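Quick one: structure tokens for this chain, please?
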Amino acid sequence: MSVLTGRLPNGLRIAVDPMPGLHSATVGIFLTAGGRHERAEQCGVAHFLEHMAFKGTPSRTALRIAEEIEDVGGYINAYTGKEMTAYYARVLEADVEMALRLLADIVLNPLFAEPDIEVERGVILQEIGQALDTPDDIIFDWLQESAYPDQPFGRPILGPAERVSAFGRSDLAGFVGEHYGPDQIILAAAGAVDADALHAVAADLFGGLASRPKAVAPAARFAAGERRAFRDLEQVHLTLGFEGAAARSQEVYAAQLYAIAMGGGMSSRLFQELRERRGLCYSVFAQASAYDDTGLISLYAGTGPDQIRELAELTMDELRRGAEGLAEAEIERARAQMKAGLLMGLEGPSGRAEHLARQLAIWDRVPPLEETLARIEAVTAADLRDFAGRLIGGAGPALALLGPIADAPDREALVRRLAA
């Protein structure tokens, strides 16, 4: 990776990673604002705003936005996360400037026309309904709420239907005014792209934006809670969440290696014990997420109502055994998976562009790939024991359960099992 970075006088950050030999590029506008930056009455507005960006600008209709990118065979999309909102496009080399100008237009100049708001409100309400009907989707929102109750970090990205039903133009424009300043914009591009040319276009498009105070999100406070809901389903869906490591923590790589060893693949402890040896589930996995000031180790499994107690108790047993010590072969296997996942994810321009934006958001620089790989290599067995020991010796897991849960143990029972 030969990353070139820059900054406009108003604070907007730019990162470009040219990839010789490619004929296409990904260019994206990444905002360091997402769901956790919303006040209670704004819950869901960042995601609503992402939808509205594609509904038209003073110079482009919604149809024209779609036609302009697809006339050249390109692809355009967006997503909203807890700490970032992204608008990005994948195009051929000759169309990079066009794609950037299109993205800048929809981000900086959305119309927010009332008829379009009403149409998109219906679309988002359908999206919320679909999520509520998808157990292995909504269960993670419930886990987030249980782990971070009564705070922005724990609220769902889509927002509750009653909030979405009430949003108007002023709500959308207000969030833009608070969070779409140049200090919160990262322009990232990778692939067949000329860094100097992109910088010049960026200066033309964004150079006139006035700096504004950067809104600070409330601190996240992990407070392990529990949410259980009966639903007449074939399976019980179980999620557990432990407070992990924040993105700039020294333990962030230990957290990821631990999650991989416990539930990151077919050779992981949970997969082998719960699925391969016991036949208790079809799907089981663990993952580590890192944010600005907190992290979350989350585990998921789905099983039958008669097996949920055994599955939950065995999960606690494996987590405890994992904290007592992982074998060297397990650690090296997890390390290889983590490094391979990182390197494979950077083979395409879209993965690289997103990587650039996230690194700038975390570190305000793009660390060399060799530095990241060295930090992964530096994690020792003792580091993993220390991290896992604190993980299971802390407040215990947040718990979310959905399905026929009559026989499912409660959180306190799982905490006692973990400490046994």
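The chain has a mean pLDDT of 96.
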